[in-house]
Amino acid sequence: MGEAARGDAVTDLLWMEPADGRQGASGNPNYVRRMDARVLKALDDWVMLDRTAFYAEGGGQPSDVGKLSWDGGEARVKHVSKRGAVKHVLEGDVPPQGAQVHGEIDWALRHQHMRMHTAQHVVSGVMWRTRAGRTVGNQLHADRSRVDFEPAKLDADALRDLERDVNAIFAADLPVRCYEEDRAVLEARLAADKTSERNLLTLVPQSVKRLRIVEVYDPEASTTVDVCPCAGTHVARTGEIGRMEIVAREGKGSNRERIEYVLK
């Protein structure tokens, strides 16, 4: 779960590393803001590194941006993708293969994406547990995000209740755990909890036996707000998210609803 490869070239994904107590807040590797790395490939306007803290676009979450610097040069990282190789698309000079580089992500943007993505988990968890609304799509942005639910019928009262319940979880400052777990263990947990429709396991190939899990948990109530495989970046506690405001609702057919939200 912590590396991406094509051929013999491998990139260690630092935001995916299992929490070990040394990587930022609560051992959460999503707080790593900078790294040193070696250039494995340098072609045209992009490079592949042996390790990276830059999040690569996926799962409805945009990539990180930032900068790379090296002896004699500097470039802006304007996009990162992970289709096969993890490509850091650059604006400016391109460091040569074998060069040692220092990377720094745009932390303000990364933290906003972390807040938005964790908020989406809470919104999806609340919708599933209160209305059996399954998340069937999402798109995250720094300023606003959307989630699609099915089945769902959300009138003004339902939207108000959803907003209230989600903000109560944010205010409770619950822990958000990122960890690895065997697929069979997660399947057994979710079957017992009757949350199989929300866990997204059907989207993960059966060949993947070790999963990176994100879980929002209420220790006082001994209940899970949301748990599912996810490779995105998240805050360490729900109190970092702030407050959600639903700003739009749109029907997407007879059985599907889309909401848009912002964070305050």
SSE layout and pairing:
Elements (H helix, E strand, L loop, with lengths): L2 E4 L2 E5 L20 E10 L2 E4 L1 E2 L13 E5 L2 E9 L5 E6 L7 E6 L1 H25 L2 E6 L5 E6 L5 H16 L4 E7 H11 L16 E9 L4 E7 L14 E8 L5 E7 L1
Parallel strand pairs: 2-5
Antiparallel strand pairs: 1-2, 3-4, 3-9, 4-8, 6-7, 6-9, 7-8, 10-11, 11-16, 12-13, 13-14, 15-16
Total strands = 16
* Secondary structure category: alpha+beta
Return residue spans where pLDDT drops below 50 for at least 5 consecutive residues. 19-25
Outline type? globular
Helix content: 10-25%
Strand order across the largest sheet: 3-4-8-7-6-9
Radius of gyration (CA) equals 19 Å
| Count of structural domains | 2
Let me know the CATH homologous superfamily of the largest domain.
Answer: Threonyl-trna Synthetase, Chain A, domain 2
- The overall pLDDT average reads 89
Total DSSP helices: 3
CATH class of the largest domain: Alpha Beta
Q: Outline the biggest β-sheet.
A: 6 strands, antiparallel, barrel
Tell me the series of helices and strands, N- to C-terminal: EEEEEEEEEHEEHEHEEEE
